[in-house]
Each structure stands twice: as C-alpha cells, then as structure tokens.
Amino acid sequence: MGLGGYLTWTAVAREIIKKYGKNIKLMPVEQHGSFYKFLYAHKDIEIFKDNEDFCLSYNQGSLNNNLILPLVLNNPNANYCKQDTPTKAFHRTDKHIIEQVCELYDISDPVLRCYLKPQAADWWFKEKIGKWFNTTISIHQSPPPFITIEPNSKTNYTPNRSYPFEKWQNIVNALKDKIPFVQVGAERSRVLDNVIDWTGKSSFKNTAGMISYSKLFLSSEGGLVHAATAVDTKSVVIITGYQSEKMVAYPQNINVNIATHGPCGLKAECPDCKRDAVNHDWREIVSLIKEELCL
Ligand SMILES: [Zn+2]
Questions:
Q1: From ligand 1's centre to the CA of 164, what distance in Å?
Q2: Counting CB atoms within 10 angstroms of each CB, which of 17, 19, 71, 294 has the fewest?
Q3: pTM above 0.85, yes or no
Q4: How confident is the model at residue 115 (pLDDT cuts 50, 70, 90)?
Q5: What whole-number distance in Å separates Cα of residue 214 and Cα of residue 231?
C-alpha cells in the first residue's frame, strides 16, 4: 500500500470514531493468520503519527481506559483491488475507496476527506514561500497566490495513471504569466520549466503542508491528491482509464476524466490509456484553472 492508500484509512478512522465513540483508538496492524503484526516500524507509518485517532502501540492506546480497535490494513475485504494478477488489477468500482472500507464498519456516507497534519509550523512555510517571491510574509499575512503541481506519476505499479509531461509543460507555459507554479514531489523528479522547484525539499507531510498554501493543486490521480483533501486545497485531477472515477475521485475536486475505455487495470503500458492521454486537449485544463481562479 502506498501513502495514498494509508491516507484513505485516516478518513475511515475519523468515521469509525464519529460513529462508535471518542474513547476508541485505532491501531494499524497487519493480520497474518491468527496473529497481528504491529506496524510501528513501517516506513509509511508516519501518516498515522500526530493523529489522535490512532495509537501506534498497545500501551499508548490503552491509556485513559480507551478501547483499541485493530485496524487490519491488509484485510482483503477492505481492499478495492479484488484480484491482482501479474498483468492486471481487478478493482471494485461501484464506490469510492473510503466508502468501500467504511462499509466493513457499517458506516454509510462517510466524508470523503483524508486527515494529515504537516510537521512544520506556519512560519516555516511562510519563510520558504517568502524567499521564492523575495518578500517577507508575516504569520498574519496570506502568501501571494500560487499553484502547486506534480507532473510525475508514480509508475512502479502501473504507467497508466500518468498524463504527458509535455502537456503539463504546455499548461504551465499558458498560465505562468498570470500565476506562478510550484512543482512538488519526490527527489530526482523530472522538473518542468518555468516553475519554482520544491521537489525533494520536504517530507510527504510537509509537501501536503505546502500544498495547503496554494490556490490549487494539479496532478494526475495519486497520493498527493489524497493529501490535498486533508489540507482543504482543491485539486484539478486527471483521471485515466486505468481505474474508475467513482473509486478514486473526491467530489470537492475538479476531476478531469480523460478515459474513453476502462477501467482497464493494466499494469503494463495500455495502448488505450496512451491514446487517451495523447488525444486529450490540455487546453481544457487551462480553461478549468482560469475559470476556477478567475485568471
Ligand atoms: Zn487503459
């Protein structure tokens, strides 16, 4: 499971506590046969740190007579991927991922918004942003408007969620004189021209923090889109034919579904996903951004 997958559990946790009581702590575990494996050493566990809904050890969770509910992250019934073959993932597509997991806990109509808190404080972000714009931003001031963008998709599982880098570049070029762009993402990412480069500069949580200061976040479907919901920044999200829109899209976002096929679930390069990406007119994204931000 990637960071995005872990983030969807934060939405589930909030709903469980809303329904079953505040004295419940959720302990993320994996189940192996009859045994639970604690996940405190897992690299992605930072998503659950600093979140009061979770406890990362039994001792911490059981303080104040709290009840502990093991959250079995590898429960196959909670997994939107119903079958995973070497070439194809078969998804359950009738509901959003968060709704699918909530169903297990008898919760309907969950709020589709993840939970995550940046590690750094407000002043830290404003200092960085101030440097980009050669100004000083006090803690009482809002930073100048900018857009955050992640043009690179994670391709280790499938290449079929990505949108052509050149088209992201065209979008930036068409709007750069009206609003600055800040590229976020992992270290050693391919970086666009005409952007402020924030790749590899902070943790995943602080990247979400930086997105929170932006007017809009642009990306194809992926982990940072889940993160942006947690910081209440609207995203313009490209959704390809790899997966169903219903399963991944957040209603608060501007979702641009470019699929003419699917959901294909293909792990190797899909000719239909490729054709959809080639055929899509990037100017549609420019118009949507202009309309949203009144540019
Ligand atoms: Zn496809």
A1: 15
A2: 294
A3: yes
A4: very high
A5: 10
